[in-house]
Design brief:
747 residues, alpha+beta, 16 helices, 39 strands, 24% helix, globular
Length: 747
């Protein structure tokens, strides 16, 4: 048989293609998993990513911990070991690759991993990515993967005993406090707004990566210079080279050839973007983003490639001594920004259950409310990529804590090395996001050690106290900043707050968590006189709406003294504090449902008084981040949005509390004074309209031209209130368009 020329040509092309170096390929391993309790023979289907609690719920093996007092009935789970397994098929084409890595993006937390009966990996940190070359262990056909998750309590009891003293952990009520030793989400051990649900599981994706010769490990885009004409950038391309060779590295269409030896290599690639468009926070301009394509080739065949998304902006933290104390504010592209925002916690105790839609709704709603900054609090997680992608796109600035909160930590070499690996993993993963403008070492550890009386409570000797404090300094003043100096250029603070609210003069110094209202029993009016330089925490609780309450409590339990309602209140002063201030600022409630509504009205009033006070002191104060934006379970808390995404009264008022250009009223001795706060980068000119209403609802209107300098504050009105007027609406109108409105109670 004679082959025609067309067939011959096809065969030549096929033969040539077979000789080409194949690109990196990924095989997801999220399917086919089973789980069981150790020493049980009952294997059941499991979801991956997932956690053991949600797997148990799906099989009706436990009641849902969010309902009633079921949380108490599932505490046994944290004391048990859990086994997960799956099988998967591998073809010979994968086995022929130079390297095949097994990758776990998240194992929660202590895990022994076995592949085809061989131990390959021991994990001990929920926040790290675990990668292992398994080329020599895989077989053609069926392979088995098994994971044993070990109880954090079982793992850390010996560490606690060996240390000789207990480390304080204000989140834990259990007798054995193991969270300081455990690199997993601190809030899972319980907090004053959430339950104790200590999870285990494969909480982020797992997959195989097969590649030849080289793999792109990481790409960091470093901004060297930024002007109106050009952005001078450098791509640092980190490569895992399997075989010596000559490779072509391409960044944004610019290519270089490098002879690379086997091992880890970093190739520097300078490149420019002409006439760059800057990335701006919400309200200040566009969120301009650039896709930076990066590829590596061998003999002109692309082996690996990825696209890095960046934004071009300049960030500075001004934290320095001044005439009254110590400033604390951020500059974005040279302009000081007043941060209007909130603290963020994980959206569920069961982290993999949070959907893409949940992230999109929360971040888009945050922007719509006027929020321009979110603090990712140190008791939760380093969030999924989608969270930061959405903040990039919506212009939400991110203050990123490292995951340490409200306890002291050990300083042994194993713990410190684990922390260092955690910092490297997460900084490298997140550092290209323009939305992230600040790294913060921990939440309230410094202020707790120096003000919460732990030394007396735990009976530490002078030697123990010195050791504990030196361990703290080692991690947060030495190791983390040293790593950041190598990995990233964003500003870093060792802790939040940097100043304690216990003394009036402290409000002149740096970042502040003001908890005089709530923990200190202060009245809401004290918000007006206790204004720090940057208010990174403060708040007041409320109940979620009745639809959410109905989810966890039936109507027979709709009272503050019911077992269920007490159980869902995790603050030691919670329900009493809400009732006290609700009665102070509003009428006595008419039944439970009215109490729930008034609790939200009380919370909104507290936050209105706080936010107004902070914005009126602009220049002294440069940020207001209330506690907290969202919830992780259904119950009373400080949130503006509950765990099901249902908005409270506070959220509804954020649109005028956090308006970019706002009118802020104050009433003193019968005089109504109004200030125009302009957080925008343009001078404001428009009409201020005041609608006064008397007891009968009759309207009297006043209109006045007002102007306000960019990024400033101006007094625009001050007059005695006529006795007949009860309420008013404040409005700003520009070219016949109403751009701001706010109700005011004049009495």
């Amino acid at each position: 048989m004679r082959l025609n020329k067309g067939i011959i040509l096809v065969l030549i092309i096929v033969a040539f293609a077979c000789e080409q170096a194949p690109s990196l390929s990924r095989k997801m391993l999220n399917d086919g998993w089973e789980f069981k309790q150790e020493h049980s023979n009952d294997w059941r289907n499991a979801s991956v990513p997932g956690v053991v609690h949600t797997d148990l719920i799906s099989h009706d093996m436990i009641p849902h911990p969010w309902k009633g007092t079921n949380e108490n009935d599932v505490q046994w789970i944290e004391n048990e070991n859990w086994l997960y397994r799956t099988s998967f098929t591998i073809s010979n084409s994968i086995l022929e690759r130079n390297a095949v890595d097994l990758v776990f993006e998240g194992l929660d937390t202590y895990a022994d991993v076995r592949l085809n009966g061989r131990s390959i990996l021991t994990a001990d940190n929920m926040f790290r990515t675990w990668r292992k070359d398994v080329s020599d262990l895989l077989v053609e056909g069926e392979n088995t993967l098994e994971i044993k998750f070990i109880s954090p309590l079982k793992m850390n009891a010996p560490k606690l005993e060996a240390l000789g003293y207990e480390l304080p952990a204000s989140n834990e009520t259990a007798e054995m406090k193991v969270s300081p030793f455990t690199r997993k989400s601190p809030f899972q051990f319980g907090w004053d707004w959430g339950p104790r649900l200590v999870t285990s599981g494969i909480w982020r994706p797992v997959y195989l990566e097969a590649y030849d010769r080289v793999r792109i490990v990481d790409v960091q885009v470093v901004q060297k210079e930024l002007s109106e004409d050009v952005a001078k950038l450098e791509a640092l391309v980190e490569l895992d080279v399997e075989m010596d060779g000559t490779f072509e590295i391409n960044v944004m269409g610019q290519e270089v050839t490098r002879d690379l030896r086997a091992g880890m290599q970093v190739v520097s690639m300078p490149f420019n973007i002409k006439n760059p468009k800057r990335w701006w926070p919400a309200g200040w301009g566009e969120q301009n983003l650039y896709d930076i394509p990066v590829s590596i080739s061998f003999s002109e065949d692309v082996i690996d490639e990825e696209v890095v998304n960046i934004g071009l902006r300049e960030v500075e933290l001004v934290n320095e001594a001044d005439a009254i104390g110590e400033s604390f504010y951020f500059k974005i592209n040279g302009e000081p920004v007043f941060a209007r925002g909130a603290n963020y916690i994980p959206q569920s105790h069961f982290l993999p259950s949070v959907t893409t839609e949940d992230y999109v709704k929360l971040i888009e709603d945050a922007r719509a409310s006027g929020i321009n900054m979110i603090r990712v609090w140190g008791g939760g997680i380093y969030e999924n990529d989608i969270f930061y992608d959405l903040c990039d796109k919506n212009g939400i600035l991110v203050w990123q804590d490292f995951m340490f909160a409200c306890t002291m930590y050990p300083g042994d070499s194993a713990f410190v090395k684990n922390v260092e690996a955690e910092v490297i993993d997460n900084v490298k993963r997140l550092r290209n996001h323009p939305s992230i403008i600040h790294w913060n070492g921990n939440n309230e550890v410094d202020v707790a050690w120096n003000n919460w009386g732990w030394q007396d409570k735990y009976g530490y000797s002078a030697e123990d106290s010195a050791k504990i404090w030196n361990d703290y300094l080692l991690v947060f003043h030495d190791k983390i900043p040293a790593l950041l100096a190598k990995l990233d250029s964003r500003p870093y603070s060792t802790t939040s707050p940097l100043s304690n609210w216990g003394k009036p003069e402290n409000f002149n110094y740096a970042s502040m968590h003001y908890w005089g209202v709530w923990h200190g029993g202060d009245v809401f009016e004290d918000f007006e006189k206790n204004v720090g330089r940057f208010m990174s925490e403060y708040g007041f609780q409320s109940f979620p709406g009745m639809e959410t309450i109905s989810y966890f409590a039936d109507s027979s339990q709709w009272n503050l003294e019911s077992e269920v309602m007490k159980h869902h209140q995790k603050s030691y002063v919670g329900n009493g504090m809400i009732a006290k201030f609700s009665s102070k600022y509003f009428d006595e409630p008419d039944g439970f449902e009215d109490f729930v509504l008034k609790s939200q009205m009380t919370q909104a009033k507290a936050m209105q008084m706080a936010i107004d006070a902070h914005r009126l002191r602009k220049g002294h104060c440069w940020g207001t981040l209330f506690w907290q934006l969202n919830d992780c379970w259904p119950g009373p808390s400080w949130s503006a949005v509950d765990v099901f995404g249902r908005k409270k009264v506070l959220y509804d008022e954020l649109s005028w509390l956090y308006a970019l250009v706002a009118l802020i009223p104050t009433i003193k001795d019968g005089v109504l004074s109004i200030s125009l706060v302009n957080d925008s980068l343009e001078d404001f000119e428009g009409a201020m309209v005041i609608e006064f209403y008397d007891e009968e609802g009759n309207l009297q209107e006043l209109e006045k031209l007002v102007v306000g300098p960019k990024n400033g504050i101006t007094s625009v009105y001050s007059e005695q209130i006529q006795a007949k007027f009860k309420q008013a609406n404040l409005k700003l109108v520009v070219e016949d368009e109403e751009v701001f409105t706010r109700p005011v109670n004049l009495r």
